[in-house]
Design goal:
The protein has about 425 residues and is of the alpha+beta class. It has 2 domains: about 15-205 and about 335-420, Aminopeptidase; about 210-335, Alpha-Beta Plaits, CATH 3.30.70.360. The protein contains 11 helices and 18 strands. It has a 6-stranded mixed sheet. Strands 11-13-9-14 form a 4-stranded antiparallel sheet, covered by helices on one side. A hairpin with a 2-residue loop joins strand 4 and strand 5 (about 130). Helix 2 packs antiparallel against helix 5 (about 135-155), helix 5 crosses helix 11 (about 400-420) and helix 7 (about 235-250) packs antiparallel against helix 8 (about 305-320). It is elongated and about 85 Å long. It starts with 12 loop residues before the first helix and ends with a helix. The relative contact order is 0.19. The protein binds zinc ion (ZN). Zinc ion binds near residues 106, 137, 171 and 196.
């Protein structure tokens, strides 16, 4: 229930509440149309179509819009070769205020398998659920944000902050060619920002970092009948894996002081062998064996130190075994992110969440990264929050709950009304 004490919604809260409930068809229809534009990534399809559609919807709400196409040199820098033009849509509701509150949503979705019960690109409404690829991740949130703007406009709520929305591509491949580009180039205004995150009474305030490496163990290949003539890279790898096992134990004791929804996720982690390669034939001593490492960093750690821990193990190992050689190549790296704390912003967001959910609002760090990190890295107070369903992001039969769409609209409406 929307009860906005001391807020600019005072006296209007019941009307807005009733409007959001009575007019939920708007959000359902809008989300359905978004699901039916298959913005599948990779490779990134129909981006121009969805940006055009969203631009029209924003204009209907009286927002002014701008489109920024991510340039080719940025695409090639981040390995984006195929698919649509990367169109970033920015929509403004200028209140002539000093500060701007920015809400970002990504519009790309991951591919769907043929295991879906329904057609993933046709929205199917069943009870409180809307099924479709992207319903939860995160087209549902786009519907919630626009629905909130519509309600505030409808009731002429005077805002003390400018609202800027962005709808961006490529979050599902890291976001550097979507929101990352906009933030890097200073094309968005954001004194406070929100983007993808948890839902319900959970607000996201940061995410872990990630370091991916590929480790190559070079021995010497030989005939299986004459193993003394070779150096078995697989057996060497086994010894190396034991050394990394010690690192894994050590870092698992490092726990973030920040809250995480799942206490077990408070630790730094290391996963080995997600990718594994080596060995050609049964009667050959393997000469080269490769395996991957996936290291996740808590907000208190940094990439350089994490790299050094790995490199030190390898250095020692190479010094000990002179007849083999281990190399590491870091293929992906990204530091952790944590929001700058802004008391007023955090309070407005947690109050909104508490009013709508009736539960204590909880701030936590997410194990995986979303686009909110681009704001955080720039020192902008930024939080993650989005509409939810069955937490089936990226899996078959993804859905969002209509109740969550409406509640998320209420949360955004309250935040917009109370900021500034
Ligand atoms: Zn997402």
């Amino acid at each position: 229930m929307l009860k906005a004490q001391g807020s600019r919604l005072k006296g209007k809260e019941d009307k807005i509440n009733n409007f959001l409930i009575a007019d939920k068809k708007y959000a359902i229809k809008l989300l359905s149309r978004l699901i039916e534009i298959p913005t599948v990534n990779p490779p990134g399809e129909n981006y121009e179509r969805i940006a055009f559609f969203l631009e029209k919807e924003c204009k209907k709400l009286g927002l002014s819009t701008k489109k920024y196409v991510t340039p080719k040199n940025v695409l090639s820098k981040f390995g984006v070769k195929y698919g649509s033009k990367r169109v970033n849509l920015v929509a403004d509701m200028d209140m002539e205020a000093e500060k701007t509150f920015h809400i970002n949503s990504h519009y790309d979705v991951v591919p769907a398998t043929d295991k879906w019960i329904t057609d993933p690109f046709v929205a199917v409404v069943k009870g409180d659920r809307i099924y479709g690829r992207g319903s939860e991740d995160m087209k549902g949130n786009i519907a919630s944000v626009l629905f909130a703007v519509r309600a505030l406009k409808r009731f002429g709520v005077k805002l003390k902050v400018n609202i800027q929305l962005s709808f961006t591509p490529d979050e599902e491949i890291g976001g550097r060619t979507g929101l990352g580009y906009l933030v890097e180039k200073g094309l968005v205004k954001a004194d406070y920002a929100m983007s993808e995150g948890c839902s319900g009474n959970h607000i996201s305030m940061g995410n872990k970092g990630v370091l991916w490496g590929e480790i190559e163990v070079i021995g010497k290949s030989a005939h299986g009948s004459l193993p003394h003539k070779g150096v078995n890279s697989f057996e060497r790898m086994n010894a190396l894996v034991n050394e990394f096992g010690k690192l894994k134990d050590k870092i698992s004791k490092r726990k973030t002081r920040h809250n995480m929804r799942d206490a077990i996720s408070k630790s730094a982690t290391l996963v080995m062998g997600g990718f594994l390669e080596g060995g050609l034939k049964v009667n050959v001593v393997p000469g080269i064996t490769k395996f991957s490492i996936d290291r996740r960093l808590i907000p208190e750690e940094n990439i350089d130190a994490a790299k050094k821990e790995i490199e030190d193990i390898i250095k020692k190992f190479n010094a000990r075994y002179k007849d083999s050689k281990v190399n590491v190549r870091f293929v992906s790296q990204e530091g952790p992110a944590i929001s700058r704390k802004d008391e007023m912003f955090f309070k407005v967001v947690s109050d909104a969440v508490e009013i709508v959910t009736g539960k204590h609002a909880d701030f936590s760090v997410m194990p995986g990264a979303t686009d909110m990190r681009y704001f955080m890295w720039k020192g902008i107070p930024a939080l993650g929050y989005s509409a939810s369903g069955g937490e089936k992001w990226h899996s078959d039969d993804e859905f969002v709950c209509i109740d969550s769409l409406i509640d998320t609209s209420k949360v955004f409406a309250l935040i917009m009304a109370n900021l500034g």
